[in-house]
Amino acid sequence: MANENMKKILEKIKEYKRIIIFRHFRPDGDAIGSTKGFAEILKATYPEKEIYLQNNDFSKHLAFLGGEDEPIDDALYADALGIALDTGTFERLSNPKYKLCREHIKIDHHIPIESYAEYEWVEELRSSTCEMIAAFYDAFKDELCMTDLAAYYLYTGMVTDSGRFRYRDVSGETLRLAGILLKFNIDTEKLYANLYLREFESFKFESHVHKKMKISENGVASIYISLAMQKEFNLSTEDASAAISHLDSIKGSLIWVAFIECADGSVRVRLRSRFITINSLAEKYRGGGHACAAGATVYSRREANKLIKEADAMLKQFKENNEGWL
Length: 326
Ligand code: AMP
Hints:
binds adenosine monophosphate, 11 strands
């Protein structure tokens, strides 16, 4: 069912001839799936409108989903409606030219930290922004057109952001909306092959991560991936970042963290957890995200160790005050 925010968004979409769609940098399946999926729905529904995807960076692992539109002239932003998807803060947008648009819409499922659009629809309990776009389609299905391609993009983001429908924020509504998308022609076997098959070399790196990882006194698992390690295994920053998933199934380790050194001197932090909320910790280190999946940035090993110490103290307190965790 459409809420007031959704109705306002559809009204604004109808009002504009040109719509530019934005997402966060370092895009994941949800950022790419929601922007490309929404663009496809709008193109199919309103062939007379100009719909552009204008984002600066891309993901090698998700290249099978296709790229962005060619950059458009700055002058075209002035009378356009800008729609930002899956992005909690203005700073995380891949393309700051979003600001040049005449009016702005934000559709997002991250815990809200900042408002940066005149019209916002934020639901932090949704498992993905793709789920929200599927809900948007479902609410206005008499007016909007879904295509096979749009359903494929949206389903991809729903799968990746929910850990294949495994995380706690997956609800009956998530599955109902995924079911609507599956009525379209989506080759799920090919999709899963694209998403989850890995080069043999990456298994060697995984075993190295298991050798080098550390576990703190109260169970925070962590790995620090230096530039030297990335060179040794011939990894891009994106490849190295995948290490977070190698730490995720250790009993008693309810928080796990990967630090990835970047060429510009910063260190990307990926934080994950079971049962315990960690976005507040990410926010202390220039980051944010969800209760159990967040990201941050530190600038030295010392700061990385400080973050682990704080995570360890949080975990100690959690274990002392809760039962039934694994
Ligand atoms: P990642 O580890 O990059 O997959 O991030 C996990 C979640 O946290 C994603 O939903 C990101 O959008 C969010 N996130 C990552 N880094 C940041 C950041 N610096 N600020 C706010 N949110 C972030």
